Amino acid sequence: MNFKNKRSALILAALVFTGCSDPAANTVLKRLHLASAHTYYVSAEQFKTAAFANPPAPDSETQKADLAAILDWQARRTKADCKKAKKTAKAGYVFFWGEKDPFPSPLPPEAKTFFNNLSSDLEDSVANMKERYRRPRPFKAYPDQAEPCINKSWGYSYPSGHSSFSRVFADVLSDIVPERRSEFIAKADEIALDRVIGGVHFPTDIAAGKVFGDNFHAELLKSPDYLKDVEKVKSLLVKP
């Protein structure tokens, strides 16, 4: 395996097996992002300047509503809610497919490479978006009020990485198995909301992640390599 493939494989492993909120995964992702990036389907460079809505201003009514939503969930979330939010913090390929995985087991190398490459492009793109806005997470912006019940994530808050990743996975998996789109979108929305319930993202971070995810997917659809690889992956599905 060459360096580029190792890098993308480690990114996906960090996302799937430890989760973006896990300190070990964060260290891996941060170091890998500093390494020389390679574009597979969508260049991350465009997301340094692409048109996108700014996060709410610190003293705006929207920001106040964001904080109110965080504190509302904080007051009424249960231990079960927090336990679930910890679980979905590790969202990745396995959380969409679960026991209904339509691919052979173990995952065919071609499919694994596809998801690795997709995750590599997306991780760099999300990092560029977060760096543009540098919005503090709730527990950093309001350290005396916001108290997460899951691991505190490193880095900036806007847009949400989990919301972005889950939305892109939902869009991509819908390209592969279109009849299950509603299922994928519902799972993505569930994962995104858990970030608010857990106290590590504002609602507007989540909304921005969904918009960004759809924007990223729109760029994927312009990539001949992506479209070609989607067809290859479709051919690997278990036949009914």
General form? globular
Over all CA atoms, what is the radius of gyration? Answer: 17 Å
> How would you name the CATH homologous superfamily?
Phosphatidic acid phosphatase type 2/haloperoxidase
Q: List low-pLDDT spans.
A: 1-36
How does this model look, in words?
This protein is mainly alpha-helical and 240 residues long. It has one domain: Phosphatidic acid phosphatase type 2/haloperoxidase (Vanadium-containing Chloroperoxidase, domain 1), CATH 1.20.144.10. 62% of the residues lie in helices and 0% in strands. It is built from eleven helices and no strands. Helix 1 packs across helix 6, helix 4 (79-88) crosses helix 9 (181-197) and helix 6 runs antiparallel to helix 8 (161-176). The longest helix is centred in the middle third of the chain and has 25 residues, at 109-133. It is globular, with a radius of gyration of 17 Å. 42% of the residues are buried.
Distinctive features:
Vanadium-containing Chloroperoxidase, domain 1, 62% helix, 240 residues, mainly alpha, 11 helices, disordered N terminus
